[in-house]
What does this fold into?
Amino acid sequence: MGVLEGKVVLVTGAAGGIGKECALLAAREGAKVVVNDLGGSVAGGDEGSAGPAEATAAEIRAAGGQAVSNSESVTDIEAVRHMVQQALDEFGGLHAVINPAGILRDGMFHKMSDADWDAVIAVHLRGAYNVSRATIEHFRGQEEGSYVHFTSTSGLIGNIGQANYAAAKLGVMGLSRILAMEGAMKNVRSNIIAPFAWTRMIATIPVKDEASAERVGRMQRSMRADQVAQLAVALASPESKDVSSQIFGVRGNEVVLFDQPRPVRSMANTEGWSPRSLIDVALPAMKNDFTSLGASATVFPYDPI
It folds into this structure.
């Protein structure tokens, strides 16, 4: 028996990349799958197409699994409610949401348009809200449910040119934490994954120097979407019932558990602080514990395993 035997799973962004691999693997592990994908471009904003989601669903059915397709947008709460109803109508239930749907509109913050900010927030953060809000009462009512949302090291650590994406993905971290805390008594879990994988989204990142070209090359060779799917499906499974509110990374064959913000140093002054004493005493004393400005590559400088 697979780890999702008898379960129904909604997978967003499932026409390609990580989403598709999650949908295919969930089906192989016994799930009935609602395959969602707008069928649009990496940047979003176009009308999309029903074909890509249906292609993934057809591939699942051809392999002996059960799947239906949906080409609506995660940015529309009514559309997401329809996805949930589709799962209930077609398969009689819904037990997990795997939510890697996303777009990129990179650019330096001082040049970023309002439209590019809003579009990325809408898909990643509003989309995570929508799929969670549309399912949370169902999950709580049946006292079973798992969210596997996706974050990014662009938010957890930082990458230049991705302020919109970073803000949205760090917001997803906060959302997942509260979903897990509030859902604990009802057996509703939420975890997030920061994936390292070569996908069409990653392919849009400009390569401007030899170091970044080599980094992209390593990712292309050694960090695949199907490796990320293994953890996503494991977290969706009820067999991971004791795993919630965690932040994971997948980097090739390596699974990373990230820490979460907690105090690292404190300074107290019984007489109270002033701007001058903070500048002269407190901030210098804390300096050795400051987080550096290094991007993701400085935290993961080694080749993937």
Observations:
- The chain has one domain: 8-260.
- The chain is about 45% helix and 15% strand.
- Strands lie at 8-11, 32-36, 66-70, 96-99, 145-150, 188-196, 247-251, 254-257.
- The chain has a mean pLDDT of 93.
